[in-house]
Amino acid sequence: MSQVWLLALLFISSLVTSTSAISTSHVAPAPYRERALFGAPKIKVEIRNALPEMQEVKLHCQSADDDLGVHILPFNGTFSWRFRVNFWVTTRFHCQFTWRGASATYDIYKAKRDSNWRCPTYCYWEVHDDGVYGYTELEHANDLVFPWPNPQNSNDTKKGYKYT
Ligand SMILES: *[C@@H]1O[C@H](CO)[C@@H](O)[C@H](O)[C@H]1NC(C)=O
Ligand SMILES: *[C@@H]1O[C@H](CO)[C@@H](O)[C@H](O)[C@H]1NC(C)=O
User: Fold this and answer.
1) What mean pLDDT do residues 39-59 have?
2) pTM for the complete prediction?
3) C-alpha of residue 18 to centroid of ligand 2, in Å
4) 16, 85, 90, 159 - which has most CB atoms within 10 Å?
């Protein structure tokens, strides 16, 4: 096979993002399709409910191509999915989290932010009572925190929340 042909094939196959759901406690339904033949490595994103006192959190993740559906995570439950970053490195999944009547939407995977050093193959998140925590892959260090927008969602006065 000529190198030109191989390059063309590589280009075409990497135009599309491939997403497939895997899950431990929650199985995301079809249609998660395997579209890319080869190209970027598969990335796994996993979100754990680390809320206290056996509380549930509702989440709804989607990208431009895929809606992963609404899932209720029980205490310590996880939701995860796999996909490949597209050719333009614009792949982005945002998730809406709902807990105690308040909702917030955050970028849980952003190829430009995450695909190089932050989490090249495994991106781990935890939902806590003061926000959603992101961890780096190699060091497992918490480097991102998206605080809950609604003060009533947190009793952590040290972080400056006020209760009205
Ligand atoms: C949460 O689940 C993990 C396995 O997914 C387990 O190792 C851990 O002990 C559990 N933690 C709690 C607090 O139940
Ligand atoms: C937070 O504070 C409110 C009001 O005092 C209380 O009703 C609620 O149970 C507390 N939540 C937690 C998780 O401690």
Assistant:
1) 90
2) 0.69
3) 42
4) 85
